[in-house]
């Protein structure tokens, strides 16, 4: 007769799925961090994910000096005269009705996007640092007259930004959605960005350098998978050790 040594393994058979389920729940709960709710404005209907637009700027020699491929979404907060309250307008920049222009200088590049028959002008200014061999978005501004405002036009500008940092000679790439806060009343959501404001050669992007968000997004599943594999290995080893001990304790009548 075998002594009652099977009880621990029945317990482990019940607890193992519970442990794995709790671990998976905790891991994915950590990844999906909720975004804070907007409480200062009444948002309009979400227009959905914007289309990616291909934009370029040429210099005086008719050579492309700035390339950008990205989806853009504007978050504008303003006082509505018709609704008599503060409203948050979410507007997608539509590439098929957007005209790109700008200028390129030695250490400064400008991308200007005009939509709605020039009623809306969105401007990005990039600055390079030859000492560090980097570039970044240093300024963004928006002017539009398509909103219902008492003043007639909405405008916002910030000349001290530090977004979309890349390396000279390389293009900047970020597949993850980002929110660039320009002012209290304006932020810009970017989607699947690839851009290069300096050192464009042959009308094509240079080798891409991934943003930190993309690297983190790729790293999280690897960490979760490794942790799960480690947990399974520990449980398996515990099972084998326990089974060996239970065999050693067999009693025959």
Low-confidence stretches: 1-5, 27-41
What characterizes the major β-sheet? 8 strands, mixed
Question: With helices defined by DSSP (H or I, 4 residues minimum), what is the helix count?
Answer: 2
Strand % is 35-45%
Helical content stands at 10-25%
Here the CATH topology of the largest domain equals Porin
Supply the CATH class of the largest domain. Mainly Beta
Number of domains: 2
CATH architecture annotation name of the largest domain: Beta Barrel
Judged by helices, strands and strand pairing, the structural class is: alpha+beta
- Calculate Rg over CA atoms: 28 Å
Q: What is the residue-mean pLDDT, rounded to a whole number? A: 80
One letter per element, helices H and strands E, the order comes to HEEEEEEEEEEEEEEH
State the end-to-end distance: 6 Å
Which shape, going by the Cα principal axes?
Answer: extended
- How many β-strand stretches? 14
Describe this structure in words.
Pfam families: Lamp2-like_luminal, Lamp2_2nd. It is found in: Cell membrane; Cytolytic granule membrane; Late endosome membrane; Lysosome membrane. It is a single-pass type I membrane protein. Belongs to the LAMP family. Keywords: Cell membrane, Disulfide bond, Endosome, Glycoprotein, Lysosome, Membrane, Signal, Transmembrane, Transmembrane helix. The protein has 253 residues and is an alpha+beta fold. The chain folds into two domains: 169 residues, Porin (Beta Barrel); 43 residues. The chain contains two helices and 14 strands; from the N terminus they run H-E-E-E-E-E-E-E-E-E-E-E-E-E-E-H. Strands 1, 2, 3, 4, 11, 12, 13 and 14 form an eight-stranded mixed sheet that branches. Strands 5, 6, 7, 8, 9 and 10 form a six-stranded antiparallel sheet that branches. Helix 1 runs antiparallel to helix 2. The longest helix is centred in the C-terminal third of the chain and has 37 residues. The termini are close together. The N terminus is likely disordered.
